[in-house]
Amino acid sequence: MSLLRYIDLIYLSVMTKRADILEFAVLGMLGDGPLHGYELRKRLDTVLGPFRTLSFGSLYPCLRRIEQRGWIAQVTVTPATESSAPALSGRRARVVYSLTGDGKEAFDQWVNEAGPEAWEDEGFAAHLAFFGRTEARVRVRILEGRRSRMEERVAMLRESVTRSKDRVDTYTLELQNHGLDRAEHEVRWLNELITTERKNAESAQSSNKA
């Protein structure tokens, strides 16, 4: 296999995962009720914003894909019936997107998966946004997986900083140290979340026994 073909396959795999994450994030947002495309994009930006820029050019193809699978449906609303979706300016009929039964099942399955996809930056952000709909044991597994991934990143960054001290200028070194500080901070934050999740689980078990 040529190097260019190998790079193409890696790129395709990454883009496929990004598309999947966006699809399930859409399903999760629609779980709260029907939304216009504009309002849906705004809400998705709050979830995926730190890791990607979401445009209508990527949102609407995503909506078409999951509509073809039967996971969402378009509903036309008039000003008189628009109370089920956030209002937009103007008085003409609007199209909103609503979640179907199949879409809810697909989302419930995704939100309770704790594989490597859920540990990467964008996948973790999406899963974390819907932790309220995730089983407690799965939340812990995702947090532990993310912690392991970040601990690996911390080790790599530390090694990079050590090797770079005498070879890069002050500003580059400061940038590397900044990245290391952020990674170490996230590990500490994850440890706190995991501790809290486990305490809540123990408390729930004690209540059930009582």
From TrEMBL:
Residues 26-108 form the Transcription regulator PadR N-terminal domain. Signal peptide: none annotated. This is Unannotated protein. It comes from freshwater metagenome. The lineage of its organism: unclassified sequences, metagenomes, ecological metagenomes.
